[in-house]
Amino acid sequence: MTRTRRRNALWAFAAAACVVATSAGADENARLVVNGEIEMVTRTAAPAHLNGALPDIRSGWTFRTTETQALQIDDFDNPGMIFVDKAMDAWNSVEGSEGKSCSACHGNPMESMKGVRAVYPKWNEAAGEVRTLVMQINDCRVKRMGAKPWKYTGADMAAMEALISVPSRGMAVNVAIDGPAAETWAKGKEIYYTRYGQLELSCANCHEQNYDNMIRADHLSQGQINGFPVYRLKNTKLNTAHARFKGCVRDTRAETFKPGSDEFIALELYVASRGNGLSVEAPSVRN
Amino acid sequence: MKLSSATLAACLIAKAAAAGGVAPQDVSFAEDGAVAVSLSGMAGDPAAGARIMTTRGKGNCIACHAVTTLADAPFHGEVGPALDGAADRWEEAQLRGIVADSKKTFEGSVMPSFYKTTGYIRPGKGYTGRAAEADPMAPLLSAQEIEDVVAYLMTLKD
What we know:
Chain A is of the alpha+beta class and 287 residues long. Chain A has helices at residues 2-10, 66-70, 81-92, 102-106, 109-112, 133-144, 155-165, 182-192, 203-207, 241-250, 262-274; strands at residues 32-34, 38-40, 43-45, 56-58, 122-124, 129-131, 214-215, 218-219, 230-232, 237-239, 284-286. In chain A, 34% of the residues lie in helices and 11% in strands. The two termini of chain A are 28 Å apart. Chain B is globular. The longest helix of chain B has 14 residues, at 5-18. The interface between A and B is medium-sized, with 27 and 28 residues.
């Protein structure tokens, strides 16, 4: 099958999975090694800017059940990889008035996109704005290809984001929060600690004060985005960070912000920075 | 005819007042956060209280609290302490205060304020993600629902 062949060409190594798991519940000390070779940092020291707000930072993977954790250990078991394959087709497809494909300018994404996911959102000097990976992809589609932008949280975009993340897997998230990005970062931080909605709950109320606690049927994680886009067993598709933010704000009985809004761009930068030091995992698997 | 949330809120408030109850903005909290008198002017029904506590669109208390006597309802959370023995730890007036507006008892509490109608940041229309249409809005629980919940909490003795 072409899917299998392409996968073999890109990341050929379906070696022994390595997880030291003991219970059916979450094993927070399990080790994540993907395809027997990509060593993921799923727990590490919190970045200095957190000022002790968290004792350490943990990937959402460490909060999931052993069964869910296992799906991320080998690309053949990871349902998110199907979408990566689809994005590879899109990467090679000519679209738009300029007659170009992504590959026409960027070649093999496994080479050209290495390290990119780890530093986004990122300040773009020419545009004078903080850009998410989604914004950058659409900028290339519109300005360089003469193609239509993709929907911010749509399937095409989530898949392309996942494809671009793959060559950065195992690299440490390292978004810049100083210099020209500082203002956006500060705005994101303010949003993170604001108690929205009729339930008056902030991101921090759940993901900083109560991670590791159960809230109804959910085991609360730190709400990290190092694994995004995330394949969720619940809706069997890739989910973008902004779609997740929207769902979490809605659940506080609040008026949400829109995916792609200035608020969510700022929040993405801030939340990403809380995970500086964790590995890029996308596409990760969650429930 | 379609009732707006504003009308509904107004009706609720009017109803509470008519029954000799206390409207959300008129609740008087003691220094320790307690509320001495029944918000509806009537006694609570513990069976109704149990239903409110386990219903997602109502109190949804078990999302954050474990309650042994409500073990039949699935998925008890651990964001707040288990409520077993709550009536041994608190007077009725204190429990009423905690349910009406927990922040008056526990400063900055994660627990939502159930008898409050205004002062929110980006309040939504239920869980739709859209903006609420009315300010003041209907409280999360009505005066009688609070009394029902308090009546149930009063049964939680070790």
